Inverse folding.
């Protein structure tokens, strides 16, 4: 049975939204004062300097909600275990924010940035944000994952964070991706009721909505690595909690459905760069959003098209989570076929655009993202 959110939960979303909406202009001024500005050179899309400390807006929202819940409505944290996870998640989010800000300002080497992400993810996993048990979807007993659950959980959190980071290539794109994925997580968490997941999802929904007016094209501020990693870590941790309450193997896949766009884009990027002998995080101009620009779509139209795709995936994730097991397997088979078709389509677009770029009269130019590889 669907559990409707009490009014207090909606107050959390409104608070998160208002804090991001009100404080983002402050971070714009601060970023300019610190020289944290992304300049329009090389492969950048934008044509003017843009500040990029938008991750501070997300942290301000979470900090406000964190304090509000602790002091005004602690009953939302239904147990001491929830309180511990609430504190641990906030500390972990603060840690990844600092890593991202340092990278934005000083450009960490990819291996050190990845190591820092793994350490923060391990911190979350050590305090309970991990897969521990899975249940056979056809009625079998539960199986403990043991050490494999720790490894899977770290890989999950770091993978989702980097998928959000890599998709952050057009104004408003990553914030929209996270918004729709958080909406899917929230809808899934309503039945069976998962209050902690609802809290995290509402923070993400509110803060991305409050940030988007400043980040949508033409952007006044970018979220930077700090913001993208921050959102990815919260989303990954929330998805784990969503799956833990429903311990079937199939339930682990629904958060991936909602995040299929950044996961597909990341997978294509890793395959593409590995074939060329490049580092998986090496920059290029061949992400999905680049291809849409190269096909002639405007910046806004490309983002809105991808937002529409994310909306459909979020709806699919919710509907799939409500199907009986035998229909869920059929749903995932169809989804798997769709993913393979997506790989084929984007591979075809790559070849087509490469032919157009090398044709006589072409200047070989291509659109580029504003900051991310």
């Amino acid at each position: 049975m669907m559990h409707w959110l009490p009014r207090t939960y909606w107050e959390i979303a409104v608070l998160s939204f208002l804090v991001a909406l009100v404080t983002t202009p402050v971070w714009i001024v601060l970023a300019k004062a610190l020289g944290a500005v992304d300049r329009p050179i090389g492969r950048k899309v934008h044509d003017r300097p843009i500040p990029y400390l938008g991750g501070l807006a997300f942290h301000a929202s979470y900090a406000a909600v964190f304090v509000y819940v602790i002091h005004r409505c602690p009953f939302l944290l239904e147990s001491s275990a929830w309180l511990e996870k609430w504190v641990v998640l906030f500390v972990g989010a603060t840690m990844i924010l600092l890593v991202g800000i340092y990278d934005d300002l000083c450009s960490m080497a990819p291996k050190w940035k990845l190591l820092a992400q793994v350490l923060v993810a391990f911190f979350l996993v050590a305090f309970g944000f991990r897969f521990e048990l899975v249940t056979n979807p056809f009625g079998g007993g539960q199986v403990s994952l043991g050490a494999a659950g720790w490894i899977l959980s770290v890989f999950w959190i770091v993978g989702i964070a980097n998928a959000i980071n890599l998709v952050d290539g057009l104004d408003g794109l990553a914030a929209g991706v996270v918004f729709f994925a958080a909406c899917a997580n929230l809808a899934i968490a309503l039945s069976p009721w998962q209050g902690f997941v609802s809290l995290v999802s509402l923070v993400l929904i509110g803060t991305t909505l409050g940030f988007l007016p400043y980040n949508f094209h033409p952007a006044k501020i970018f979220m930077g690595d700090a913001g993208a990693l921050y959102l990815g870590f919260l989303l990954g941790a929330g998805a784990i909690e969503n799956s833990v309450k429903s311990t079937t193997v199939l339930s682990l896949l629904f958060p991936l459905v909602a995040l299929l766009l950044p996961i597909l884009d990341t997978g294509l990027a890793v395959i593409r760069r590995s074939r060329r002998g490049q580092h998986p995080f090496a920059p290029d101009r061949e992400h999905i959003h680049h291809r849409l620009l190269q096909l002639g779509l405007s910046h806004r139209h490309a983002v809105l098209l991808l937002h529409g795709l994310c909306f459909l995936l979020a709806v699919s994730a919710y509907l799939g989570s409500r199907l009986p097991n035998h229909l869920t397997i059929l749903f995932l088979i169809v989804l798997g076929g769709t993913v393979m078709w997506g790989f084929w389509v984007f591979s075809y677009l790559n070849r087509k655009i490469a032919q157009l770029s090398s044709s006589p009269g072409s200047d070989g130019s291509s659109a580029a993202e504003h900051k991310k590889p």
Residues 325-358 form the longest helix (34 residues). The longest strand covers residues 133-135.
